[in-house]
Amino acid sequence: MKPLEVTVFELTPPWQDVLNYWFEDGLSQEWPQASVTRKWFRASAGDDAEIEHRFGVYVEAAIQQELVDWERQPQSRLALILLLDQFTRHIYRGQSQAFAGDHRAATLAVEGVSRQMHSKLPLCGQVFFLMPLMHAEDEDLQDLCLNSMTALLERAPDSCRKSVQSSVDAARQHRELIRRFGRFPHRNAALGRESTAEELAYLEKTGSFGQ
């Protein structure tokens, strides 16, 4: 009697699905293509809806600290940071819940940087590993972000120096806002915070600044 052949299917772990969506093949090369980076900073309502449909359950689990096993290695920790720091901003755009994962994401980033976990990731992964520090309303974390982003730039290959330089410039701009206001004025409306006269003048002059 011929032995029964059993086919074993390897399931992609959920954290890998997060990385595949956000970077596509970008983690296997120096920097993703423009079609990938568009959704990072110029996302459409359709992108927001897709993220909610595909990853909303994982975002909520991350906020409730139910994905602690994702913290153990660099790539899965990066995926967890993306859920907390990026996907929240898509699913809850313009709402206070958009910032619900910020503190946890920053904690994971700081701890990961102290253990050099981010250095084991491709360059684009390192940038997003550090991104919660750029979003923090804390001057010390802003300093850590700018210093860490600058260190990335110093060792970036010529082919993606321009992309990393953009992140350094953004980190510097975010740090200056925190030094000036102690918080991000463009979040005040979503968080129900009353803007000062200086903040209102700034917002009228600069308009939208992301989330």
Automatic annotation (TrEMBL):
SUPFAM superfamilies: TPR-like (SSF48452). InterPro entries: DUF924, TPR-like_helical_dom_sf. Pfam families: DUF924. It comes from the Bacteria. This is DUF924 domain-containing protein. It comes from Alcanivorax jadensis T9.
